[in-house]
Amino acid sequence: MNRTSDLLIPLGLIGACFLSIAASIPFDGEVVSSGAAAIVIGTAAAWRPHFGVATLLLVSLLAESAGHWFGAQLRFVDELGIPVLAVAIVLLHRSRFQPPRSGLREGALGVVVIAGILSSMIHGVPGSIWLPALALLLKAFAFFYVVLALRVDERDLGSIMRTFLLVGLVIVGIGLAQFVAPDATASALNLPMVEQQRGDIEVVNSVFTHPALYGWLAAFLSLFFYARFAVTRSRWTIPAAVLLNLSSVLSGRRTPVVGVLVALLVGVLRQVRGGVASVRAWLAVAVAGAVVLAVSMPLLGDFYRSTLIEYGEQTDVMAEVFTDDPDSLVLSTLQPRTALYLGSVAIGRDEFPLGVGLGRFGSHMSREAYSPAYEQYGLERIWGLAPHVPIAVTDTFWPMVLGETGVVGTLGMIGFLGILARDLWQASGRTASRGVRTLTLAALMVFTETAVRSLTSSVYLAPPIALITFATFGLALAVDRDVGGTGQPANDG
User: Fold this and answer.
1) DSSP string spanning 367-410?
2) pLDDT at position 492, please?
3) 468 class by beta-carbon count within 10 Å (0-12 exposed, 13-18 middle, 19+ buried)
């Protein structure tokens, strides 16, 4: 097969997924629709493993959009798709499946799991709560290891990257059209309506039901263009990256702008040792970053400032969380994220060293079966955390880890992510082909952006961002392992 078929086949498989979803609508069930998509994902993986990976990633990306267009919810597409993908690869492509050796990284993740299980048992959390919570916690990490275990060559890598890039750029293009002509674009493409003002702009959401996903996707793609420029010096990649960053600004979100700027700083630190040419390249990137910041501040500057003032005004009531009997009325004015961070610290202190158990704080299951921990720490009157509208419960990551697995689990998670960062740092510094170097450098910067994002979202847990970012990490480490830093497949012997 050639490059054209490597691109058209995954796109055809994605189309087949949505056709199967449309065909399942008469059966009126989320599991049925998700199962139909999972069957196509498994078929794609049976054909070629990387086809299955690309199909799962893009179906996950567009799952909520499919719900809007077809009226068929796909909440379980990843829960069903990941096991089907793994089974298809192991049974039909065993020679291309190479499970990684256990090491400190896996040991650190094991600490998180053990801490969560022990804490759940000590606090008597029902199995109907902590078992699903554990599965949701580990879902994206499991997918990372499935991708990491694949033997990947540069052609497979190129197929996945080109397919995702094409679909991603189309989505960003739709968002730009929506910004220019919102009513006409939304009517023509039946886009989800999200009427929201941030700063001086009407936010853009493109095909997504939430603008934050659009902002993240544009930022994610831009890091690959920046990495491509750093490796190849292709001049067109800088304006493309800046346009993507400006698209992130149109989502009205702060995190994509901050995350990209920090990621570029890490990219500079990693590559600046490459000599004068490398320094010049990153100076060009720095200018691009300054342009993005200069444009975003007039549009969103007032929004940024008002947010800082709003958070700053809450310092007087924060200490209430740490009293023996927190007053929920006093705490009701706190921002949900602030309350989650404060509550998790209080739990970490009171339930040292293992927390209150899985499914009890800051997680999806703590919302599904409303956790008594919120009332215990006076958080039940805060908008977004209250039992009648707990929509902000999963707006963070680290409070969940600290609250549910304690100091022990938090140290384990820091260890896992720290070792993963080290591995990506080392991979991005090895000599290899331009394609591999672009991916490994982009993966390092994506990791940095994700680390910044984890402060304000459950980025390591919630699809599609968790799946796409962990797949990026897994592919980068797999191709670095298999290419062996030479641009040629590694010798098995």
Assistant:
1) HHTT-HHHHHTT-TTSTTTSTT--TTTTS-SHHHHHHHHHHHHH
2) 34
3) buried
Residue whose pair of structure tokens reads 């969103």 in the numeric block: 300
Under 8 Å between Cβ of 377 and 346: yes
Which of 250, 288, 248 has its CA nearest to residue 268?
288
Residues 6+ apart with CB under 8 A from 450: 259, 459, 460, 465, 469
Question: Which residues pair with residue 201 across a beta bridge?
Answer: 198
Whether residue 215 contacts residue 198, with contact meaning beta carbons closer than 8 Å, is answered with: no
Asked whether residue 215 carries a pLDDT value surpassing 50, the answer given is yes
Collapsed DSSP state (helix, strand, coil) of residue 198: strand
Cα distances from 264 to residues 44, 66, 235, 293, in angstroms, run 35, 33, 17, 13
Q: Among residues 110, 106, 92, which one has the least CA distance to residue 51?
A: 92
* Residue type at position 331: L
Q: C-alpha angle 76/8/479, rounded to 5°?
A: 75
Residue 62 exposure: Cα atoms within 13 Å on the Cβ side: 22
Residue 409 CA to residue 405 CA, distance in Å, equals: 5
Q: Span 381-398, mean pLDDT?
A: 94
HSE-CB of 232 using CA atoms within 13 angstroms: 18
